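Is it possible to get an amino acid sequence alongside its tokenized fold?
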Amino acid sequence: TTLVSYMIVENGVPTTTTTVGGVPDRQHSWTAADLTSALFGSRHDVVFLAGHFSANDALGADYKTNVLSTELPASSTSFVNSIVFSAGCHAGYNFVDPDAVATVDSVDWAQAFARKGATLLAGTGYQYGDTDFLEYSERLYANFARQLRAGAAGTPVAIGEALVQAKLTYLAAT
């Protein structure tokens, strides 16, 4: 099972929907509780997180609820050797603890996933996607996912090599 865009996907078919008639619909959108249930409910080897992020929280698609980065290290779910990549803005931004604002929890997503033994690939600044076509950050991450499977059957592909090839593919098509 792979967690993709805050939805569990079984055999490539989403088990939940956030659209009505192909149009995004907040009445049917996932909430922070949906994400925590999917993300922390069982182990995932590969996780792709897409949505509105800050360095230490993720906004639910309902635009009402949030998942905090501090919830990740507190979960009992193992992320050891998981690959997590995110098109969420600032999902990879790392707070410098001594410089953090005293009223803001300084555990960011990068620290939280590192504490759980996962490898995080995420942007430190703004990332951009589009609702009508695959573009920008989305295209880079789609290329990355393809590159993770580019090796011969049963032969692992190094994450760094997959990222380099994804960026080269992106640049060649731009």
User: Anything to note?
Assistant: Confidence is low (pLDDT under 50) at residues 1-16. Helices lie at 32-41, 71-74, 109-115, 137-148, 159-173. The longest helix spans residues 159-173.
